[in-house]
Amino acid sequence: MKRLIRLTVNEKDYEIAVRPNQTLADLIREEIGLTGTKKGCEVGECGTCTVILDGKPVNSCLVLAAQADGRTVLTIEGLETDEGLHPIQQAFVDKGAIQCGFCTPGMILSAKNLLDRNPGADEKEIRTAISGNLCRCTGYQKIVEAIASVKDPGSPS
Amino acid sequence: MLLPEFEFHEPTTLSAACEIMAALREKARPLAGGTDLVVNMKKKQIRPDHVVSLSKIDDLRGIVQENGLLKIGACVTAADLAASEVIRKSLSALAEAAGVLGSPLIRNLATIAGNLVTARPAADLPPPLIAYGARAVLTKRSGERSVDLNDFFIGPGETLMAPDEILTKVVIEAPRGRHGDSYIKLGVRQTLEISLVNLAACISFEDPGGTIADARVVLGSVGPIPIRARSAEDILKGELPSEALFERAGEAARRDARPIDDFRGSAEYRRDMVGVLTRRALKTAFNRATSR
Amino acid sequence: MSEYDVINTRAARLDAPDKATGRAKYIDDMRMPGMLFGALLQSPLPHARILSMDTSGAKRLTGVKAVVTAEDAGMTRYGVSPARYDENLFCKDKVRYVGDEIAAVAAVDLETALEAVSLIKVEYEELPAVFTPEEAMAEGAPLIHEGFSRNLCAEVHQEFGDVEAAFKECALIRTDTFRNKRQDAAFLEPNGCLADFDHSGHLTLYTSTQVPHYVQRTVSMVLGLPLGKVRVVKPYVGGGFGPKAAANPMELAASLLSMKTGKPVKMNYEREHVFLFSRARHQFTHVLTTGVKKDGSLMALKNECYLEGGAYASFGIATVYYAGSLLGAPYKLPNMKYDGYRVYTNRPACGAQRGHGGVAARAAWEQQLDAIAEELGMDPIDLRLKNMMSAGDVTCNDLNMSSLGMKECLEAVRDASNWKEKKGRMPKGKGIGMACGFFVSGAGYPIYRSETYHSTVTMKLSEDGGTAHVYTGAAEIGQGSDTTIAMIAAEALGVPLSDISLSSGDTEFGVDLGAYSSRQTLMTGHAAKMAAEDVKQQVLAVLSETLQVPVAEMDVKRGRIVFKNGKPDFEVIRARYKKEHRGWRDQPSGDDLTFREAARMAYLAKGTIVGTGKYKPEKLGGRFKGAAVGTSPAYGCSAQVVQVSVDMETGKVTVDRMTDAHDCGFAINRTSVEAQMEGSLSMGLGEAMFEEVKFDGKGRILNANLGEYKIATSLDMPPVDTIIVESNEPNGPFGAKEVGEGAIMPTIPAILNAVYDATGVRIWELPLSPERVYLALKKKKNKR
Fold first, then answer.
1. Considering the domain boundaries, does residue B180 fall inside one?
2. Can you list the alpha helix ranges (DSSP code H) found in C7-51?
């Protein structure tokens, strides 16, 4: 039986009837229509489904949609502002940190969470923060350079 | 990957949760972080008719220190454990273990209770918790009991919990006096690993420069349940710490281990690594004890 | 001061902002009204006869719209090499591996489709199965494919020169056996497709592919649809690396289901299916015998290789050739003998993966060369330099190194890594190692025998506005080809990159063989350059008429017309343009005639200006059997130095630093070249250290997930230094050639050689798991 949940996604409030066996990843992609959150493995091993849930980056494929009731979600689509790309997004573009792009949304969100907590993060801290986000294209080199280059990480969420 | 169908319950109080578990028993599974349950449901290894989410029960969160006891709520996440000042200070091996569990993303979901009740032989938190003599509080409608984690595990995926019980708290007496703790995890990669071998070592001293008063060495991934390396502990107690002593303790721990061959690695390798890593963990623990 | 305006820069990639913001649509992000969901029935057994199949239960299930089997699909065979088409869409008589496709269902939602699949009743008669080349080739082994005795899918026997005679002149001859393991490409985006068969009988197949062109041909052939009614469109793709370089059964099944139902049909592989499908790197067992003279001159190489191929041929014919041919360079090697055997087994089929056939061979040989250097008392870099080929040299197997910056690469990494200070001076447990490698810049021949162009590109100038639309069938799969092709087009036309809009990956845009064998920069690049020059010439021709200036005295640069012998008066042109654009605020001004104005002129004079370009390599290679494989218009090459630390008590290896220099001819986009090098290194590191597809005794994969199939994480990859070497390839557009696969070649052997340097132990089997290294160390210790 479906249950009605209320959640905030990218600062917009939603009221949605969800099935118990629906994941947050599917809720975001199917019901809300934000497909920037990806599904690479669906069992929490690749990080492409990363969203920020109540301020913490998590694998949305492991969270039941119903468990998101009353909570706040930030997806990659929520980073852009009217002024343009978020500084981290811009850094990824400028530093060539994006190749196939499938890991990128999750990677950027993990990076954002790191820089919100620890704006002066060093290389080890950067690599640790993104260690749950797999990338097969870049070898992580330019991703780490991009994250390290962000001086003003914008406002935390 | 689809999840099977089930009914979802979201009690907001512990007593409501206990009522549900009392009524449904084996038909229901409590859900905290989902990093084990949701994965196994997707793999069709488990198909509970009911899932009882514990996320809205405030009583299950928080780390409280009172009267020399540390009380950790069931739903405290691995990330919270790794970051907690009080855990890092008083139960450093637990903080270390929590900090290498899974990945940073998993750590934001995985809970202390989940890592215990799922009883995976390679789980990260049981060895340090057992080394600290932790107890688990199991609650059901009719009351609660406290069990020593030494006795908690029965086999892979099996604990002594009754079908209507919920693990609500982990209680640990913080080590006092001069002591040092260490956790080591050996995997293939640097992260996202199920251990080949993992272990926790805690040693304590009465006087500085004196003999070892108490020692706990707990091995993971080398038996169906976490193993207290009692032979190693017996060798250590009452002795003056030294490289040679730690080496002997490592050899003894090797004998205590009961590894198997599996697709991750051979029993022989795991056994050898128990010896090496026990020695290293003891040395680290000793260094930490003396630097306090 | 660069002579170029657009290329050789660090232009930001055109697709990066969409990918950074979540706007980029991959196949699973696509929806269509009325869309059905498909699911496959796959064999649970490694080898079995199909005795009967009953789909009635599935057909009866509410919500099921179609169930298809071999009856519906027909038995037209397909595969990769036409000489070895050994696949049917659905098995009819027997299944050959766990995962072999038997049927497919389309239903209103995925749950229903999966349930329907579970209701299909199949009766199997299990047959004995074989899982290794030894088992498969043994006397009395069950035959997986009729007509292939001893399960030999393909055999190659080649000899160049006279190896035995050469060995007689050698002071040192060494034989080593090396084995890698089956890999998985582990692209982050699982394969998926959306097939849409419309009311006019047109099929549009959206799919996550590297090769729209080959997929189009396969779908047309297998399903009996006229080629002109099949369109394949590639959305954004989340990585390919080889397994997406051929049509897969899911694409065919979805297309068939769409034809049957008249509705769009979506299908995806889950991560487990990606592993079951495989078409990834083979397991190779190489026995290499190398002979050298006392001074280190390479005389002869004997290479015997067995490939464990899995149940179907896929790319395997090319693979078994590459496993030999790709050792022909970059060293002068006068005599080479190769015997290669690709063996069928009851496991998922292997195919092409980054470095195609050359990676294991290179790993084996470069470690052996290191051992030979040590026996001769030579520095391993000196041994390589001594034998190095030069640009213009031809290998014993007829591969022409039209440009070869191998020496420059080697010297660059030697110096950048401080090799001379470190080699032989590192403490126990720390080591430094090096290796070289090279790869083709596009296969010299298409996969099917044909005179076809390998690439065609169309450039259409906008009738107004001065922008150029480039249409190409080339596949952007993450490597950056869209941006690279756009940059080449912009440079050749003479306009800024922002004046190019590029559309790609659609068979309607032309023929392009796609993203495999590292071909697009060179081949699609040539065609794009040609199309742009065609457009430029057409515009200048019109301008020439109007201004009475010869075309040869004009050019387009940075969006302006450049006159070699003094600027003519172009007021008339400008005035007319401004009149046409009254009200605009960005009217052309200044001393230069803009391309925008000239382009508008050209339209007014001639109508829509369209330029076309095409490319195919000239006839390459020798005349011996299999000569085609390995041929290429150009070869990229890489040298690498790696530093490792080894925990001598646990065997755990940590790669501390990697330095790679790659000769890409000429870097069209410098950032993209570095990025491809870095990615190659991480795949090589993963294969060297962690990656291995593991099976149980029943042909089932034990680790069909990204937790237990371990690719490098951010904590496993060290910082990487990349150095671009530019040798200016005469056969490449603006001198450019490949980078996508060359840099993976030296990675594994550089790590192996570094591990030897650190531990004194040579390991001849991958991966370097802690246990493998530990046991090797233990064995060495016990020998003393």
1. no
2. 16-21
B158-161: long-range contacts, CB 8 A cutoff, minimum separation 24: B158/B119, B159/B116, B159/B117, B159/B119, B161/B117
Answer yes or no: is B64 within a domain. Answer: yes
pLDDT of residue C1: 59
The tokens describing A57, both together, are: 């980056």
Contact C55, C120 (CB under 8 A): yes
Same domain, B86 and B40: no
Indicate whether B205 and B270 sit together in one domain.
Answer: yes
- Which CATH architecture best describes the domain A3-78? Roll (3.10)
Closest-CA residue of chain A to C709: A45
- Model confidence pLDDT, tens digit, residues C286-328: 999 999 999 999 999 999 999 999 999 999 999 999 999 999 9
Beta-carbon pairs below 8 A across chains A and C:
179
Per the CB < 8 A criterion, the answer to whether C351 and C279 are in contact is: yes
Q: Kindly give, in sequence order, each residue whose CB lies less than 8 Å from that of residue C579, ignoring residues fewer than 6 positions away.
A: none
Band of residue C455 on the pLDDT scale cut at 50, 70, 90: very high
> Any chain A CB within 8 A of the CB of B3?
yes
> Smallest CA–CA separation between A21 and chain B, in Å?
5
Q: How far is Cα C51 from Cα C124, in angstroms, rounded to an integer? A: 6
Please give the pLDDT value at position C141.
97
Q: Do residue C29 and residue A79 have CB atoms under 8 angstroms apart?
A: no
Residues B159 and B209 in one domain: no
Residues B167, B68 share a domain: yes
Share of chain C above pLDDT 90, in %: 98
Higher pLDDT, C375 or B175: C375
**Is ipTM over 0.90?**
yes
Provide the residue range defining the domain that includes B45: 7-53
- In this prediction, residue C628 has a pLDDT band, given cuts at 50, 70 and 90, of confident
Strands B166-173 and B158-159: unpaired
The predicted-structure confidence for C397-411, as pLDDT tens digits, reads as follows 999 999 999 999 999
Domains located in chain C, CATH noted: 16-23+453-615 (3.30.365.10), 31-127+188-239+244-277 (3.90.1170.50), 365-444+631-783 (3.30.365.10)
* Contact map slice: C 631-690 vs B, CB within 8 A: 649-650, 652, 689-690
C306: part of which helix (H) or strand (E)? strand C298-310
Q: Which of B173, B194, B222 is the last residue of a domain?
A: B173
A35 vs C contacts (CB less than 8 Å): 22, 25-26, 28-29
Q: What fold characterizes domain A87-148?
A: DNA polymerase; domain 1 (1.10.150)
Q: How many independent structural domains does chain B possess?
A: 3
Closest chain C CA to residue B274: C650
Provide CATH 3.10.20.30 ranges for chain A: 3-78
Which residue carries 């590297």 as its tokens?
C210
Per-residue pLDDT tens over the stretch C29-73? 999 999 999 999 999 999 999 999 999 999 999 999 999 999 999
| β-bridge partners, B77 | B111
Q: How far is CA A30 from the centre of its chain?
A: 17
CATH 1.10.150.120 residue ranges of chain A are: 87-148
Radius of gyration for chain B, computed over Cα atoms and rounded to the nearest angstrom:
19
- Alpha carbons B93 and B172: distance in angstroms, whole number: 13
Which tens digit of pLDDT belongs to each residue from A47-56? 999 999 999 9
Instruction: Give me the helices (H) in B25-62, please.
Output: 37-42
From the CA of C3, how many Å to the nearest CA of chain B? Answer: 46
pLDDT in tens, A31-79: 999 999 999 999 999 999 999 999 999 999 999 999 999 999 999 999 9
pLDDT at A155: 63
Domain boundary among B148, B173, B198: B173
**Contact in structure between B55 and B30 (CB atoms under 8 Å):** no
- Share the mean pLDDT of chain C: 97
